[in-house]
Design goal:
homodimer; 325 residues; alpha+beta; Arc Repressor Mutant, subunit A; BirA Bifunctional Protein, domain 2; SH3 type barrels; 3 domains; 7-stranded mixed β-sheet; 14 strands; elongated
């Protein structure tokens, strides 16, 4: 039946069942059966008497086959598991990792029923509107280096969004992607390790793509590519671009053995620098964010003592938003 | 049947089936059935005509009930799961943790079929001779603090061994316990976390207690309490003492929020300090181990550059043993 799909993809207009049957050397009844099965997989295929079949809304198709088609990566997204609905894609990847899945394995969900942000916070992840995915990584690094992967994923997300949409999101250290001051995407990096060796890392990413409306309580703090631009975008194209961008950055990181080559790019996108931040950890204090270190930590100057401190991945909020984001 | 066991435990000599039956108000046949069931659980009960029953080799009993009996802890070892044979107790605890098991949950195996040391190395763990166990911890700490738990477990192991046997093992930073220069016990700390929060930690410990003989290739580098002292020891008693010692240290660590209170004790037991070590990581170099930092890292002075460096939980071997241990 995918041969029928390929023919419909090539053809912009309508194609009769007879014409399709001839090309594939099958009966019109067989064509009709194939069309029915494609519709069951979610492809919207219009049928008009005396004209024939036409693939509509193809750009919005989002399933395993379509996500694999045209993906230009060596490793990332191979293999790819697609879940119409699951609790969280991070869970799926952890299970797959424990079963021995290779680096690059990707879980994509149409809908997440228990989507989470950092520190177990709820993340709204309804069907059809966003990209919810998790990537399995098996880098030969020590646990202390792992937080850099959150920053690399941040760069990949912002660059992919820019490539596909022309919009320019910014990064709120360490793991939020903002557009016009509202949250567009988030990253949740989880790790399984012993003290001197990482077993595996799960890089979870969520992007609000075509969301037209958020629940009341999120309206002021969350946004989507659609809400900021008035246009809808192909989730398939964006997902593939994120994987391609990330693959390049990840390879470069492993080669370099450090985050240094990415510092300039990250600084340029990081909107905390120079701003007042509230550091929430064992202690809570106000500070000015000064810089990012070569290992990806945040350098701040405390307002109370005037001293510089290095913040690991604690809790940092830009003042005024700390209750919500 | 455990009421029969309790009576046999109290009595040093022999007790007739009739006497036991009278005390419990059950028939002699019921006593006999209970004895059979206890034997099936591994209790060695001698039966002598005209004398009665006697519990023998009670000190070597090692099962869930006996390990729980007399355990003086609040949390550690509660609940306790006993496995006659399993791949590794760390695996069991990870599974239990993902199902929501509480802090303090303990897995004990009579035999591990896939025992591992750090970095996936094989650890010989046959039945009947040692303690192979893993403890579930859920501390509210950031991942960078987790390696301290390896050091705390090291202190607990050495202190428990000293309390129970009078022998004084030493610690080879970060995770080996040595007696007379040979490996007596090891610690494997594993962690599941996101970048700013630990989900859970598995503290795996292995102790060679009554091992009479090691395979050829381990003979020069491994030892047991029995081999060093000529005496056998109760694994039950030692296991319980380790849990008690660890519980105290862990509580103190969480209260203090740092490893500082333990530094002196650790330094006193750490045999690397002042010695030449080979640091094996991205780079391999010779150095002199100078000190332990308040966060549990090793301070060394490189022989090539003369500079001081801080070693996280990389690979550190005492020179001459680096191929084996």
């Amino acid at each position: 039946m995918y041969r029928i799909l390929d023919i419909l993809k090539e053809e912009k207009g309508y194609l009769s069942g007879e014409a399709i049957g001839k090309r594939l050397e099958i009966s019109r009844a067989a064509v009709w059966k194939g069309i029915q099965r494609l519709r069951k997989e979610g492809y919207e295929i219009e049928a008009v008497t005396n004209k024939g079949y036409r693939l509509t809304a193809y750009d919005t198709m989002y399933n395993q086959r379509e996500l694999e088609t045209g993906l230009r990566t060596q490793k990332m997204g191979r293999p790819l598991y697609f879940y119409p609905e699951t609790d969280t894609t991070n869970h799926r990847i952890r299970e797959l990792a424990l079963e021995g899945a290779p680096e690059g394995t990707l879980a994509v969900a149409e809908k997440q029923t228990a989507g989470r942000g950092r520190l177990g916070r709820h993340w709204e992840a309804p069907a059809g509107t966003g990209i919810w995915m998790s990537l399995l990584l098996r880098p030969n690094i020590v646990p202390a280096e792992a937080s850099v992967l959150t920053l690399l994923a941040g760069i990949a997300l912002t660059e992919a969004v820019q490539d596909v949409t022309g919009l320019s999101p910014a990064i709120k250290w360490p793991n939020d992607i903002l557009l016009n001051g509202k949250k567009l995407a988030g990253i949740l990096t989880e790790m399984d390790c012993e003290m001197s060796q990482v077993h595996f890392i799960v890089s979870g990413m969520g992007i609000n793509v075509n969301t037209a409306e958020f629940p009341e309580e999120l309206r002021d703090i969350a946004t989507s590519l659609y809400l900021e631009s008035g246009r809808t975008f192909s989730r398939r194209q964006l997902l593939q671009r994120v994987l391609e961008c990330f693959e390049g950055l990840y390879h470069e990181f492993l080669q370099a053995g450090s985050f240094s080559p990415f510092l300039e790019r990250y600084r340029a996108k990081c909107l905390n620098l120079g701003k007042e931040v509230r550091v929430i950890g064992r202690e809570t204090f106000l500070a000015t964010a000064l810089d990012i270190t070569p290992s990806g930590e945040l350098v701040v100057k405390r307002q109370d003592t005037g001293k510089e401190e290095i913040i690991f991945s604690g809790e940092v909020s830009i003042r005024g938003e700390e209750q919500r984001i």
